[in-house]
Amino acid sequence: MRVLKPFDPWRSELCTCPRKYSLHPYTGCTHSCLYCYATSYVGRRISKPKLDFIKMLKKDIYEADPRIPVELSTSSDPYTPEEAVIGITRASLKLLKSRGFKVLITTKGTSFKYDQDLFDAVMVTITTLDDEISSKLEPNAPSPSERLEALSQVEKRKGVRIDPIIPKINDDLDDIRELLREARDCGAEHVVFSTYKAKPDNLRRMLNAFPELAELNFTERIGGYKYLERGLRYKLLKGAVEEALKLGMTASVCREGFPDLMRSSSCDGTHML
């Protein structure tokens, strides 16, 4: 197939995602998050629709299995400001719906609320409630409060990704607890946690913005990423997962290698479909 492809994060030994398709209407991402891993292979640029994308998707939906869910999107956000003008995400969702595919949206945007007639569940990434930190980490993304407000307006099954958790930046457990409470009050039932995983380009950006991160030790190299020390990662994630469970949410971790912290029937939220 051409654009609707089986999700395979570089055959990562730590990926626990169930079988699904991944679809990216855009390449690049205007949100320009400092920690973005995708810039290591597409560069840092604004969102642009892929050439002949809808034409190729029209062919793919007849070759793909509609019993397998589709996620938009695992790297380039489907709801950057360009979508309001171009509408390629909405056009894609209409095609998928016409063939009966179940669709999970993953985004930092807010305009997904206008398309809720076309998807089945949504996961909104919110790394912090602190506007100052968010504006540095995710300079062109909507504010945390705007994302929560959009989430509250959706009458679909929904959750949040607190991803990445970064020591010294957004790892305070009291702050995570507050974020979880607000997300739950907006109707979020599932949460995915992940720690910051460094690549050379995103680490340079992070160090420029947050010099204090130079004190961190990335002791494991897994699948092209440098991971924080295993014990520190486990401590951060365990505390966060426990807080989510106390609030009645299901919880999981993403590509961390801690099976005991997988407290839901899917790590990514596809169980909500």
From TrEMBL:
<dbReference type="InterPro" id="IPR040086">
    <property type="entry name" value="MJ0683-like"/>
</dbReference>
<keyword id="KW-0479">Metal-binding</keyword>
<dbReference type="GO" id="GO:0046872">
    <property type="term" value="F:metal ion binding"/>
</dbReference>
<dbReference type="InterPro" id="IPR006638">
    <property type="entry name" value="Elp3/MiaA/NifB-like_rSAM"/>
</dbReference>
<protein>
    <submittedName>
        <fullName>DNA repair photolyase</fullName>
    </submittedName>
</protein>
<dbReference type="Pfam" id="PF04055">
    <property type="entry name" value="Radical_SAM"/>
</dbReference>
<keyword id="KW-0411">Iron-sulfur</keyword>
<keyword id="KW-0408">Iron</keyword>
<dbReference type="GO" id="GO:0003824">
    <property type="term" value="F:catalytic activity"/>
</dbReference>
<dbReference type="GO" id="GO:0051536">
    <property type="term" value="F:iron-sulfur cluster binding"/>
</dbReference>
<feature type="domain" description="Radical SAM core">
    <location>
        <begin position="15"/>
        <end position="235"/>
    </location>
</feature>
<dbReference type="InterPro" id="IPR007197">
    <property type="entry name" value="rSAM"/>
</dbReference>
<dbReference type="InterPro" id="IPR058240">
    <property type="entry name" value="rSAM_sf"/>
</dbReference>
